[in-house]
Design goal:
The complex is a heterodimer of chains A (333) and B (347). Chain A is built from eleven helices and twelve strands. With 333 residues, chain A is an alpha/beta fold. In chain A, helix 5 (131-144) packs across helix 7. The longest helix of chain A is centred in the middle third of the chain and has 18 residues, at 193-210. Chain A is globular. The two termini of chain A are 32 Å apart. Chain B is an all-alpha fold and 347 residues long. Chain B has two domains: 5-36 and 137-337, MetI-like (MetI-like fold, Orthogonal Bundle); 43-96, no CATH class. Chain B has helices at 5-16, 18-35, 78-87, 135-171, 173-187, 191-201, 206-217, 219-233, 236-243, 248-259, 261-285, 296-305, 310-337, and strands spanning 47-50, 53-55, 93-95. In chain B, helix 1 (5-16) packs antiparallel against helix 13 (310-337) and helix 2 (18-35) packs across helix 4 (135-171). Chain B is elongated. Classes of the chains: A alpha/beta (333), B mainly alpha (347). At the A-B interface, helix 3 and helix 4 of A face helix 9 and helix 10 of B.
């Protein structure tokens, strides 16, 4: 067994493409990373950079027939996810790997009671569980995710409870089968800031208790700083930088990461100073330039960026970035 | 059983639409009445006391005339029996239903020919048809036939249409494409002609007629369900369910179907009334249910060819109008009660 096969979750050279009217477009191109047991990996990037597609690829939940995985390998606890037959895949989904989504209201069936929806996932994966056992387990779960008065909430419909409560319900559903990996696709984006903090706290707390790994996808660097151990920055379908969370914020190597961090308003910056922005637009997937994908917005681009795609450069054991300027250079963490 | 607030709201809303609410009460009353039609309109007596014993002839085996002292072995003529008891005073008596005629018997008289006009003394409240059968009796039993037939047709077409439409919408792709074309061709088959051709080859009984009509009637609800499922399928909860490892069957039947229920419920009453109309028109043309079966279409046909016997046509036309109107009113009120837009208003 290779190291990739042996690790907890390992993604090697994943390519996910979508068929569109402009032909086949690669939303995710040649990305590799791994997640370790009990740790949190954050993926950041702006909308459309391929974060969610990466997450959905891990459980092969791409919209068919437009979306498909064109290449690469996904190893999860020694199983090759990409070659699994559908029945085996369904055994893993919701059971070993769970997922929570951005908008908790639309992710819940509007005409089913909360209790039934939490119980359902246990019914799917443990068909021998009795109704009573499922009911008790649901109540216990709801208590665990901090839903006050679970007995009342069991009989409620999704539209009758608040956004924060709904996301707690989603988390309860995701945790029902004690998964080894939780994929959270922007779980706090639709919530207001106070609720967001509660949910993040809850997720960290539950991770400590259950020892599951979390793949946390967000566009919010503040959230990443709060939850992640290791961070991947994505831009236009590619990974541009990978670093531990401290290194990323202290010592960003890629011009895009640097730009992102400097666009965050700081407490110590002078009042009324204009915010820094990254000028320009992400190039369209159908019109990707040769060479570096960030070249049209990069403040430090050099001649070779136009033609030669930069390679991943390791800067330290946990820090690597994709930029011509870094080639052959090691910066201390 | 606990009714949740959303359903309660729909029920309240339905009740507040008076026309639909009273129509529902009326049509349910008609249906219940027609299901127990034997108790109101029947040639058998409800209760007979004879020689100190009680008989309930309405349901069960027929009682031969000899039991009550007649000299024949076929079924007792209870009207005669009642007359005999009245003429010769004794402890015996017979209680007849409101209308003492069943829909099949010909009430013939000497020196007169049917149709007989409405008469209270003869207890033909709506008169008789051209061969002396009581019209009220035929109307009620015909209503039972029509409504049961229509309900069976509804279940058959909706069963096929809902499952196929759901599959088309959910699976999409080639399956959807093939059945779309099939439906397009199917809907262009002139159903009435096909039924007429088939009925001229074999005499259709209710079952065969039902099968033929269901065979051609499933397409409209299939279209509707296909669209509804398509819409429902793209919603995020389906993705979330997939992520939980739910199978396609579970997603369709436990999640998508309940979400499309309001559409099904809204269309059902209209399908019911169109079923009644279809059966009546077939009977009118003589290609429907076989001859002695009480049916509105056949009555309508008689009324049309005997316009001077005005009571035939007027009775069946009023009954048709009343039934179709009430069913349509119910459908209209259900549609309105399930319309989510009405729950919120802006000032």
């Amino acid at each position: 067994m290779t190291q990739a096969e042996n690790s907890f979750l390992s993604i090697r050279n994943l390519v996910t493409a979508f068929d569109t009217e402009q032909g086949s477009l690669r939303a995710v191109e040649d990305i590799s990373f791994s997640v370790e047991r009990g740790r949190t990996l954050g993926i950041v990037g702006e909308s459309g950079c391929g974060k969610s597609v990466t997450a959905l690829s891990i459980i092969r939940l791409l919209p068919r027939p437009a979306g498909r995985i064109e290449g690469g390998k996904i190893w999860f606890q020694g199983t090759d996810i990409l070659t699994l037959p559908p029945e085996r895949l369904n055994e893993i989904r919701g059971n070993r790997i769970s997922m929570i989504f951005q908008e908790p209201l639309t992710s819940l069936n509007p005409v089913q009671r909360i209790g039934a929806q939490i119980g359902e996932v246990m019914g799917i994966h443990f068909p021998r569980m009795t109704k009573e056992a499922i009911g008790n387990a649901s109540l216990e779960l709801m208590e665990k995710v901090g839903i006050p008065d679970p007995k009342r909430c069991v009989a409620a419909y999704p539209h009758q409870i608040s956004g924060g409560m709904r996301q707690r319900v989603m988390i309860a559903i995701a945790l029902a089968c004690k998964p080894d990996l939780l994929i959270a696709d922007e779980p706090t984006t639709a919530l207001d800031v106070t609720i967001q903090a509660q949910i993040l706290e809850l997720m960290k707390d539950l991770q400590k208790k259950t020892g599951m790994a979390i793949l946390f996808i967000t566009h919010d660097l503040g959230v990443i700083a709060e939850v992640a151990d290791q961070v991947i920055v994505m831009y236009a379908g590619k990974i541009v930088e990978e670093a531990s969370v401290e290194t990323l914020f202290k010592n960003p190597a890629h011009p895009y990461t640097q730009g992102l961090l400097s666009s965050i308003p700081r407490l110590d910056s002078p009042r009324k100073a204009p915010l820094t922005i990254i000028p320009g637009m992400v190039p369209s997937l159908s019109d990707m330039p040769a060479g570096c994908r960030f070249q049209n917005r990069c403040p430090v681009k050099i001649e070779c960026c136009k033609t030669i795609p930069p390679q991943m450069t390791a800067l330290s054991e946990t820090h690597s970035a994709v930029c011509h300027l870094l080639t052959g250079r090691k910066i201390s963490p | 059983m606990k009714i949740d607030p959303a359903t309660l709201k729909k029920i309240k809303r339905f009740q507040s639409i008076k026309r639909g609410y009273y129509s529902l009460i009326a049509i349910s009353l008609f249906i219940v009445l027609s299901l127990f039609a034997e108790l109101f309109i029947n040639s058998r007596a409800l209760l007979v006391r004879y020689d100190g014993r009680y008989y309930f002839p309405t349901y069960g085996e027929m009682i031969p005339g000899r039991v009550f002292g007649f000299d024949y072995d076929y079924e007792t003529n209870y009207r005669e029996l009642q007359k005999r008891f009245r003429e010769a005073p004794s402890d015996d008596w017979a209680l007849m239903p409101l209308v003492p005629y069943n829909p099949y018997e010909n009430d013939l008289r000497q020196d007169d020919y049917p149709p007989f006009p409405p008469s209270f003394t003869e207890k033909h409240f709506l008169g008789t048809d051209t061969i002396g059968r009581d019209i009220l009796s035929r109307l009620l039993y015909g209503f039972r036939t029509a409504i049961l037939f229509s309900l069976a047709l509804l279940f058959a077409t909706y069963g096929v249409g809902i499952s196929l439409g759901c599959l088309m919408g959910y699976l999409g792709g080639r399956f959807d494409l093939v059945f779309q074309r099939v439906i397009e061709i199917w809907t262009n088959v002139p159903v009435l002609y096909v039924i007429i051709i088939i009925s001229s080859i074999l005499v259709p009984n209710a079952m065969i007629l039902l099968l033929i009509m269901a065979f051609f009637g499933w397409t409209s609800i299939t279209w509707i369900m296909r669209t509804a499922t398509y819409k429902e399928k793209t919603r995020e909860y389906v993705l979330a369910l997939k992520a939980l490892g739910a199978s396609d069957a579970r997603i369709i039947f436990k999640h998508i179907l309940p979400n499309t229920l309001s559409i099904i419920v809204t269309f059902a009453p209209f399908a019911l009334s169109s079923g009644i109309v279809a059966l009546t028109s077939l009977d009118y043309l003589g290609f429907g249910l076989p001859a002695p079966t009480p049916s509105w279409g056949e009555l309508l046909q008689q009324g049309w060819s005997n316009m001077d016997a005005w009571w035939i046509a007027s009775a069946v036309i009023s009954a048709m109008i009343l039934t179709l109107l009430t069913v349509t009113f119910v459908g209209e009120a259900v549609r309105e009660a399930f319309d989510p837009k009405l729950f919120t208003t802006y000032e």
